[in-house]
From TrEMBL:
The keyword Acetylation does not apply. This is Ankyrin repeat and SAM domain-containing protein 3. It comes from the Eukaryota. Residues 177-244 form the SAM domain. Keywords: ANK repeat. SUPFAM superfamilies: Ankyrin repeat, SAM/Pointed domain. InterPro entries: Ankyrin_rpt, Ankyrin_rpt-contain_sf, SAM, SAM/pointed_sf. It comes from Melanaphis sacchari. ANK repeats lie at residues 96-128. SMART domains: ANK. PROSITE patterns: ANK_REPEAT, SAM_DOMAIN. It holds the Pfam family SAM_2.
Length: 253
């Protein structure tokens, strides 16, 4: 039995095999190391043992440029994520341009996302498909993740919006936000969708956030958004934000 299989199965003799190994950074054809397999299958005792034997294994990447931290995040084991965390690894990107925090969003790992927020990870990563973390959360309907991202982004930007996501939604509903704040909210949303070039079209027509949530695809065509891709992205965003608002209204009633 090779060492990778032993780590996958958490074989009783794997600890001895690890101790006898000359190089724990060796990998198989996919570029996976023993630590990566241990992270993926949640073998926490092996993760601890491997890192204790050779801390440099934290920095290895496989053929997809995934780190052990990304793999642990994908698998959802919070303890292993904390064990494989290192500040120099946090912002590393895989071959699709995604960081470990992006993985937390992509796989709806709320507790791990909160941990990365605590570590002040960069939430403005844009992957190779042009998607941000916020766009990913919206498209998948991960409401709690959306809320965490909005609150985190707002805390780290010098803006007049100092309230939480739920408070902003409530204020918008009751028309307590100033026009200036609503304008900013709308502009920021477009920026998160990588569609900020369309902001002047909305601004020119005095379209506020509440107005935006009522727009149809034909409305978007009428204001000048002629390309199908951006228009489709906006319609999906409108649908998801309306679902979120409805869900929050039901939870308060």
């Amino acid at each position: 039995m090779d060492l990778y299989t032993a780590c996958t199965l958490n074989h009783p003799k794997v600890t001895d095999m690890l101790t006898l190994s000359n190089n724990l950074n060796t990998s198989n054809k996919k570029g996976w190391t023993c630590l990566m397999y241990s992270c993926y299958y949640g073998n926490e005792n092996l993760v601890n043992r491997i890192i204790d034997l050779d801390p440099t294994t934290l920095f290895a990447t496989n053929n997809d440029k995934q780190t052990p931290l990304m793999i642990a995040t994908m698998s959802g084991n919070v303890s292993i994520v904390k064990k494989t965390f290192h500040v120099d690894i946090l912002e590393m990107l895989d071959k699709l341009g995604r960081s470990a925090m992006f993985y937390a969003v992509l796989y709806n790992q709320e507790e791990i996302l909160e941990y990365f927020i605590e570590k002040q990870a960069n939430c403005n990563v844009i992957d190779n498909f042009g998607k941000t973390m916020t766009m990913t959360a919206i498209s998948k309907g991960f409401q709690r993740v959306m809320k965490l991202l909005y609150e985190y982004e707002n805390r780290h930007e010098k803006t007049m919006l100092k309230t939480t996501w739920s408070e902003k939604m409530k204020m918008t509903k009751n028309n307590h936000q100033s026009d200036e704040n609503i304008d900013y909210h709308m502009e920021k949303l477009l920026k998160q969708l990588s569609l900020e070039k369309y902001w002047p079209m909305f601004d020119k027509r005095n379209i506020r956030y509440n107005d935006f949530l009522k727009l149809s695809e034909q409305d978007l065509k009428d204001i000048g958004i002629n390309l199908f891709g951006p228009r489709r992205k906006l319609i999906m965003t409108i649908d998801k934000l309306n679902e979120l608002r409805t869900s929050q209204e039901h939870s308060r009633s």
